Amino acid sequence: MDSSLVSYLLRRLLWVPLILFVVSFVTFALARFGPGDPVSVAAGQFRDPEVLDRIRHARGLDKPFYEQYWIYVKNAARGDLGESYRYKDRKVTEVIFPAIWRSFQLNSVALVITLGLGIPLGVFAARRQGTWADPASIGSFLLIQSIPGLILVPFLLLAFALKLGWLPASGWPRDCSVAIGLLGESYKCIGIAHTYYEIPISWRFLVPVDFAIPVIGMSREVMIPIIALSLPAVASWARYTRAFTLGVLREDYVRTARAKGVSETTVMTRHVLRNALLPLSTLVAFAMVGLLEGSFFVETLTGIPGVGRLAFESIGSRDYDMIMAITLLGSSSFVLASIFIDVAYTFIDPRIRYGA
Amino acid sequence: MAREEAAELGVRPGDEAPLAPPHSPMGVALRRLLRKRIASVALAFILLFYAVGLLAPVLGWLNVIPSYSDQDLEQALKGPSLSHPFGTDRLGRDQLSRVIWASQTTVVVTLATLFTGGLVLAVGLGLISGYVGGWVDTAIMRVGDVFASLPGILMLLLINATLKEQVRGLAEDFESLSGIGGIVRSGAPDYILIFGALSLFGWVGGARVIRSQILALRATEFILAARSLGASTPRILFRHLLPNVSNIIIVSLSAGLASIAGSEIVLTWFGVGIQPPRPSFGALIFDASGLRTINAHLYLLAFPGGVVAALFFAFNLLGDALTDVFTPRAR
Predict the structure, then answer these.
(1) Less Cβ crowding at N or C end of chain B, within 10 Å?
(2) Tell me: the pLDDT tens digits for A61-98?
(3) B149 to A23: CB separation less than 8 angstroms, yes or no
(4) Phi, psi of B223, deg, nearest 5
């Protein structure tokens, strides 16, 4: 890491607090000046105006706007993101981190499927350029990409849950057993992996004892959301990969490699894919953003208690501190990820330099 | 030419030279031809969609389609028939006319966003940022960075959920001050809020691309020549620079159309976009997506969903074709 990179990194990082300040201020103002009020939502049936005023006073909602914002910033700087209005007596972090963890699990599986299927399909289409298989596969990728998730999910539910009855229509696995030691008790039972597999009766002749083997598998509840998240992403990754692979296939060094008798597999993996995937590496971050945006309605439609659904419900119930926390966490991770990618780029491709 | 003959004889290019780069001139020509034909079909579909959307009031006035809000509870939830080709919804409203009026919503929102966010903000700011440079450039690009780092869909949801009443109130004040009636009832504040928010978040990508092109063009001789002949800054911007980036503008605008239309649908689906009774694809899809509804009345989802998917497919096909046409090195 040379000094120009360090100064570049510092300059980028200096912007982060300013961006977070603007983001938090705008979000704070939008939430405060909107119609509705979290206290009346939190009070529920109990609508005695005196009680509501008391709650408002206790939460500091009767203070002037700038004072409220200043108090929020001071608390947030100490790591206190406030209390939820909707989930009574729960800290925002207690609700938000399990939700993020659930969405993270879903999205990582979807990302693995996206890359694992999308890249090979794109290479396949690029290798078949000039035959019917290339336009046919590109056309179908484009068609799949054109179906909005809002329509795709109901059709998946209709096919797999209602007609075929293979998968449950909604829900989150209860019997999960992924415990993250570091995260403590409240984070148990939010995984998507079944870790024990009961031997079916028909196979008992092999294993005579009543015996369960640990395996990693996926709960059936998350299959439809994962298909819905990854299908359009696979299609777009296949198209990107095809475009970049075609660009590299035309390079002179590929012809040279073929001419000197390097095997086709080696040409593809060592010469073509390595160079084609370089520009694609930045797209991984965008793929994650895309998946997260997809989780908004996929989670809402399939009853996944993830962060997308939490965000939507928090906006609906004016859960001020929850909205703030989600927006701040979302934008700061996005900003940091984009800085990370730009820096990682210089390591992947030494030709790239960020001068002053 | 030998290869063309080989292709006509049924010999696939791969057969004769297994290690050759797999693009035969025949295949490329065929693909280009096909692509153009597909692109023209896509363009025709988009034009038809926009014409039908814009002409929705005329069609209603000529009694070609029934009103989108006429309820006939005896005809509720009837499947496709001659009198109701797309069936009827649970209030007995004709689904075809609701789809047509929903197209109008899409047409209005996409065109308004394209003009404000795409042309005025993205092109204008990109041109100024690239040509003027200095602190103006820095200011515009930093503001763009902030917008680009906001979680888009979350902010759109938040803005539309919180500012709706304010915009309605402003429109009511305007009505009482100016004496022009019917603005609030027509749903115009919903449209203004949606395309305003979409423009606010949609300009950054286009402005960055245009700026980088302008930066390269600024240093060329013909701009220097124009400047030394005494051309004014607006003249250089609009007569010399703008035509040279028009291909990029067309490509980036066509790529943006589908995402603008999609955002409106998502916002309305979440209940913060266009408010009922005005039809929007978001509302139509939401109403039809209940588990019981898709099981018993799939046509309610299939027709609007099919139209939306076809429109997005056409947008994508056209966008691809335009990229090919305007950036020839991609061939």
Answers:
(1) N
(2) 778 888 888 988 888 888 888 888 777 778 888 888 87
(3) yes
(4) -70, -40
- Residue A253: count other Cβ atoms within 10 Å of its Cβ: 12
Write the secondary structure of B226-285 as one string of H (helix), E (strand) and C (coil). HHHCCCCHHHHHHHHHHHHHHHHHHHHHHHHHHHHHHHHHHHHHCCCCCCCCCCCHHHHH
Report pLDDT for B218: 86
For all residues of chain A together, what is the average pLDDT? 78
Over residues B186-191, the mean pLDDT reads 80
Residue A332 amino acid letter: S
Hey, is the C-beta of A333 within 8 angstroms of any chain B C-beta? no
Q: Do the Cβ atoms of A324 and A4 come closer than 8 Å?
A: no
Residues 6+ apart with CB under 8 A from A170: A221, A301, A302, A303
Contact between chains at A15 and B320 (C-beta distance less than 8 A): no
Task: State the virtual CA torsion across B98, B100, B103, B108 in degrees, nearest 10.
Answer: -100
Report the percentage of chain A scoring pLDDT > 90.
Answer: 6
Q: What is the DSSP string of A67-125?
A: HHHHHHHHHHHTT---B-SSSTT-BHHHHHHHHHHHHHHHHHHHHHHHHHHHHHHHHHH
Neighbours of B185 (CB within 10 A): 9
Interface of A with B in 11-40 (CB under 8 A): 15, 19, 22-23, 26-27, 30-31, 33-35
Amino acid letter at B234? Answer: P
Note the residue count of chain A: 356
Cβ neighbours of residue B7 closer than 8 Å, sequence gap 6 or more: B13, B24, B26, B27
Mean pLDDT value across chain B: 80
Cβ neighbours of B54 (radius 10 Å): 14
* Backbone phi and psi for residue A57, each to the nearest 5 degrees, phi listed first: -65, -45
For tokens 């949606």, name the residue.
B194
Query: Closest partner residue to B154 among A131, A316, A330, by Cβ?
Result: A330
What was the pLDDT predicted at B103?
92
Give the Cα separation of B90 and A335 in Å (integer).
46
Q: Quote the DSSP letter at residue B75.
A: G
Mean pLDDT over B125-142 rounds to 89
pLDDT in tens, B24-77: 544 454 455 455 778 888 888 999 999 999 998 888 788 777 777 777 777 777
Q: Which pair of structure tokens corresponds to residue A73?
A: 């910033």
